[in-house]
From TrEMBL:
Pfam families: Por_Secre_tail. Keywords: Signal. NCBIfam families: Por_Secre_tail. Residues 747-813 form the Secretion system C-terminal sorting domain. This is T9SS type A sorting domain-containing protein. The keyword Signal applies. It comes from the Bacteria. It comes from Fluviicola chungangensis. Residues 1-20 form the signal peptide.
Amino acid sequence: MSKYLFLVLLLLGITANANAQDMMLNGSFEECDGVAPSGTVDAYNIEYGAYWHNLIGTCDLINPCVPNSVTGSSCFGAGCGRFGLNSTGYIEYLYGTTLPLTAGQIYEVSFWIKKDYTTESLRRVGLAITETVPTPAITSTTPLISEVITSTQCVKLKACFTAQNSVTHYVTIGPFGGAAPETIVYLVDSVSVMTIPPTTPLAQASLSASEPVLCFGEQVTLDGTASANETSYEWNIYNTTTGNQLFYSSGIIQGTAGTLTPTLQFPIPGSCYRAELTVYGVCKDVATVEFCIADPDIDFIFDGNPVCENFPVDLQVTGDNGWVYTWTQTNDTLSSGVGLKTLTVTPTVGNATYSVTVTTPEGCTHTETLTLNVNSQNNIAPWMDGINGTGEYTYYVSQGDAVFFNSLLSNDHPNEEIDLIPNTNIPPGFITIPPGSSGGVFSFSWMTSLGTSVGEYYYQITAFDNNACDPDTSIFKFRIIVVCDQCPVCISYENRTPSGTPLPAETKAGKCIQSGFTQVVSTGDANVTFIAGKTLDYGTFWDAGPGYEGIIEPTTCITDCEDCCSDWAGFTYDELPNPFFMNFGDEDPTNDFIQVTDTYHPFCAFNAKGYSFEIVDNHQNLMNNIGSTGQIGSACCSFESPAPENPIAHSSIWWDGYTENMWGNNVRPNSGVYTYVLTLYGCNGQEVTMHGFIEVFGSNGMVQAPGGTQQAEATLSDSPLGPEQQRQLEESIAEHERFDKELSLSPNPTTDLVKISGTGSDDVYYQIFDDKGVMLSHKEKAENLSFSLTNYSKGTYYIRIYSGTTYAVRKVVKM
C-alpha cells in the first residue's frame, strides 16, 4: 500500500516540476565562462559569470571560479552578484538573460538580496525585465520590482510578469532609487523567472467601500472579503486631498483579507481618500477604492450693505443644483426645493435673520445663516454732545498748553454704520481716537507750543449714517482758539475791594472773566476795564463803580499779543521773606516747600524771561536738584505764580527741599540753615539778584547709602558766613522765634472774625491757604489786627501772618 502511494506522489511531483520551469539562465551565479572577459580590468568582474553582463559600472562576481574573489557571502550556494553605489554618483547595474519566454504565459520573477554591510543611508533597489538588451536609459523607468533594502540578512523579492512575445528576455537589477550620500553595496542571488502553471490559482484582490460619499462624522467600512487565493494581505490608505499622503499602513498580515473601519486623517468636508488592498499568494494583486467626505458647504452671495425695512431683497446662495435647499426664518419654513438657491424676502427691523439648509442626495446637510442689517425709514442724522458734553464746540487754549476733550457721537439706530470724514487745518502732532462704527466717544488731544501761531483752528467731522432708506449727514466743527501765552483763558476774581486787594486797572482773558460769585468784588471809584473774548460773567457779589467798563472782543489775546520786551517795565515779584522756613515735621503743607510768588501777575509772573535759583550748603556745595541754572525762556510769560485766580500747586520758581546726594538718591537735607541766590533775567540783559536764607526744620538728613550704611547730609551749624551775614541771619532767626512764640489767633475755632495778637506791630499782613496748602487769598493788610473768614466755607485753613520780613503760620478752624 505504501509503495503505491509513493509512486503517486512521485508522479505528481514530476508533473509539477514539468509545469513550473525556471527560465533564468545562471540565476544562481554558480556558472563561470572560464576565461577573462575581453576588456576587463579587475579579476572579479561580473562578466566572468555566464550570461551576466555590466549595464552601468563594473559589478562583481563572488564565486570560486574567479581569479581573485571579493568579500561577501552568497545567500545560497557558492556564487552571487555584487553591485553598489557611492557618494560621488557612481552607480552599478547588471543584467542577465532568460530562455525564450512564451507569449501570454505568467511567470513569477524573484531574486534574493541583502546589504553587504550596514549603512545609515537607505535606497530603493529594483528589477526590470525587457524583451531587448537593456540600455542605461532603463534606469529612469519604473521597475517590475522595487523595494528599500534595510537588512544584511537575505530577503526574497518577487512579482508576477506576463510575457507579451515569445522571445528571450533580459533581467536588469540595480539601485533604481538613485545615488546615495555614502557607499552602499548589495549582494544578489538566486534570480528566478519561474513558469506558473495555467491551473495555479492566483491571488485576486477585491475591495469596496460602504459608501463612496460620507457625511461629516460618518465612518467608512472597507470590505476585502471578496478577495481570493491570498495567503497574506496589506492595507494602505492615502489622503489624496493632501497630495496622496500615506497615513495608514497595516503591514503584511498573514491570512485572508476581511473588513477595515479606519480612523480617517483630517476628516473634514471635502477630504478624499484612496484605499489599497494588496493580497499575496501566487503572485500578488492590488485593488483600490476611493471615497470622499461630502462638502455641502454654501455661502450667501451678499454684499453686506444695509437694507431698508419693508423693501424686497433678493437672497442667493452658492451650491450644487442637485441639492435640496430649505429656507427658514426663526422657526418658520419660507420655501424648499431642489436647486432653490434664490429667494426674495421682505425684512423688517429686528426680524431679519435667514437660514438655508442644504441636503445632498447622500443625506448630508449643512446650514448657513445670514443676518441683514435692516435700517429704519424713520431716520435722524447723527449728533454729538460738544466738548466734554457741554454742547459747546469752541475750545480756548493758551500757547504752550494742552488741548484735550471728548465728545459723544450718537445715532438713532445702533445697526446703522457711520462713516466719518475728518477735515482740519491743525498742524501735524495732534492725536484723535475715533468712535466705533455705530457711534461712541471721540477723543482729541493736541499739545500746543510757544511757537504755535495764535488764532483759530478747527477739526471738522462729517458723519454719514449710511441709512439704506434715507441716508443723512451731519457736520461737527470743533473750533480751537489759541490765545497769547501771557493771556489766561479765563480768570476769576473774588474778595477784591479798594480797601483790601484792589482790582487791576485792566484785565484781559482769551475767553471769559468771572467775578463776585462767592465773595465781594468791587471796583469802587477806580477805572477798571475787563476785556474778554467771549463772556463776562458777574455774580451776586459783584459791585461795579462808575469807572468800570466791560468789553467783549473776539480777537482779545489774538491780535493784541504783547511783546513783553518792547515795553518792559521792570521785574515784578512779591516781597521775599528772610529767611524762608521749611518744616517737615509740623504737618503744615504750606511749610513743606518754598516758592517765589508774583500773585498780582499770576499768568505772567516776574516779568522775566529766565532765572537762576541756587541753594548752597555750608561748604558752598550746590543743592543741584532745584531747577535749571540760567533758564532763559524763548517767549514772554514763561512763568506762573499761584494766586486766588490761578490755584496751581506752586510757582515756577520753587524748591521742595530735596537734593541729590553722591549716590544719586533724592534726599532731604539736615535741619539747619542754607543760603540761596535768586537771579531774574530781563529781556535786554537786565538782571536782579536777591540773597537770603532758608531754615530747615524736622529733617535728620539721614539717608540710606547703596551699601546699607547711614550717611548724614551736611548742615550749616558751623556755617563759615561773613560777620555781616552772620549778624543778619542771627537777627532774622531771633525775630522769627520771637514772632512765632508770641503770635496768637483767636477765637479758634471761629465763625467769622479772627483777632491777631502778639505781633509787636500794627503793620501786619495775612494770607489764607486751604488744608492742602493751596493759596486762597492775596497777601492783605490786617486792618485793626484782624481778618474775616465770613466768605469761606467750614473747614481747616492755614493762615500765614507776616510782620516785617518774617512770618509764622497758624491753623484755624472755621465752624
